[in-house]
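Sharing a chain and its predicted structure for anyone who wants a worked example. Both blocks are below, sequence first, tokens second.
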Amino acid sequence: KILASRLIGLQVVAACNCFLPPITTRNLLRLRGGCSIQQVRMTQSGSDAKRARSMKRIGTHDGAFHCDEVLACWMLHQTKQFADAEIVRTREENKLSEMDIVVDVGAVFDPSTHRYDHHQKSFTDTFDEKHVVTKLSSAGLIYKYFGQEILQNIVKSVDVNYEKLYHLVYDNFIEEIDAVDNGVQCYAADAVPKYKVSTMLGQRVARLNPSWNDQSKKPDEQFQKAMQIVGDEMESIVNYYAKAFLPARSIVYEAISSRLDDHPSGKIIVLKTACPWKDHLFEIEKELQANVLYAVYEDQGGSWRVQAVPERPESFHCRKALPEAWRGIRDQALSDLTGVQGCIFVHATGFIGGAQTREGAMKLAEMALDM
């Protein structure tokens, strides 16, 4: 009898389904529990309204989008407070006033009310006292005030120096976005570039704006694609510095500390594995009062490299390049020229060379010191 009554009840519900929201297991369980159809409707509509009221909204400008606000929006989605926030693109002040947070529009900078525009004449903020030239864009503003949380949510590890990482990511990623958006040149204005660079992140984002002859014109969809691109880029950079760059410091420190054990001149270091070493070397040299000319290490293929230390981490010019007579020579011809067995190559610019063994690479470095 109980089963029959339940079946009859379900049939009644099925007969009335044109007046009900779609039947789900959850709804059926509520009906079986004694709720009326009206109660089910009220519960569902009430939940929807509550969800709508609780959803955060990020406001930014409409029209052509740029890398800084695209990145700012992506970063906000990495925070607990704005993880599921809706992005509203508008310049209407009455709509912007309703947003939980506004970036890159509105002519107001006020962290206490989550207003992060940088276009007003009165705005002069930079990341810190070391960065006196580059003013913050909306990307830099969001990073400055939410960056620590964003980094932790990307890396998901406690074994990281987040304070160090925070500054590394600004210096090696965010500042570029700030500088480009604020028109800061990275070289003298009268310098003529020797070639074009057209693959920078900001340029890639700009190309996603609907073109003048695009009939579909779906800027919000393109904005979402741009967010994916900048997000992938930031995650890649953050994970590199957190998981590859920072752990390499101890390897470089050990190599510089023991440099006199590897060669009496102290000008050659031997790294126990290939790793990011140049930036660390310049920092550690100051600490240990060293002046290294060559780094020797085993590459991923099992052969060995001797690499000249650059004048600056990002420079193509070396403190002392490998001898010009060796440059562009390979294999047995290089071994015959140098008298070192197992030579593989010396690059045409002299910044790096290779040998099959550690002994061969060390011999090349030792000879280069005196040439």
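Comments welcome. The radius of gyration is 30 Å.
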